[in-house]
């Protein structure tokens, strides 16, 4: 009797630790054994958190929970500095161990606030307007003056139209 198999790609139940690297799972001690374990011999395509730039805590090559945090691949970036790892504060002896950026993750509020502070330092709000802003203000002043002039001319035209209508009415009445 053949059973109908339902394939559902949206949900996969893993019976192993997904944080273990492929090399750890596929070590040579298991190769050739008669177990029913799955052996990965090849892969196709690119993996986002391995083949493209990614924060260190999301690295697939060096899982954050099972490898030393200072280790990084060629695509790892510092979560705080947003630069390629290692940043100057990655694993520096001049920084307290817990404050080294290699430990940074989006899950901790202190790293989020430090990242925000660093971004604010990079993009400070200027108190003094730049030359282009001053020029823009001068242009706005000119536009305001032109607007006032147009309003004044419009009122004058309205007055002239009313005067002309009055004159036409007087002409038709025979005055």
UniProtKB/TrEMBL annotation:
Q: What InterPro entries does its record include?
A: RPM1_Interactor (IPR053234)
- What is the protein's name according to its record? Uncharacterized protein
């Amino acid at each position: 009797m053949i059973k109908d198999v339902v394939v559902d790609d949206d949900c996969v139940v893993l019976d192993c630790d997904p944080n273990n690297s492929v090399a750890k799972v596929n070590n040579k001690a298991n190769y050739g054994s008669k177990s029913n374990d799955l052996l990965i011999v090849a892969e196709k395509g690119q993996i986002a958190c391995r083949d493209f730039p990614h924060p260190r805590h999301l690295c697939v090559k060096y899982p954050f929970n099972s490898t030393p945090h200072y280790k990084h691949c060629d695509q790892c970036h510092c979560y705080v500095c947003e630069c390629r790892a290692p940043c100057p504060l990655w694993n520096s002896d001049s920084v307290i161990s817990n404050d080294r950026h290699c430990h940074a993750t989006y899950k901790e509020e202190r790293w989020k606030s430090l990242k925000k502070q660093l971004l604010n330092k990079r993009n400070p709000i200027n108190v003094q307007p730049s030359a282009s802003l001053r020029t823009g203000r001068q242009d706005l002043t000119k536009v305001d003056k032109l607007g006032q002039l147009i309003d004044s001319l419009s009122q004058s035209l309205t007055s002239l139209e009313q005067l002309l209508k009055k004159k036409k009415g007087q002409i038709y009445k025979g005055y």
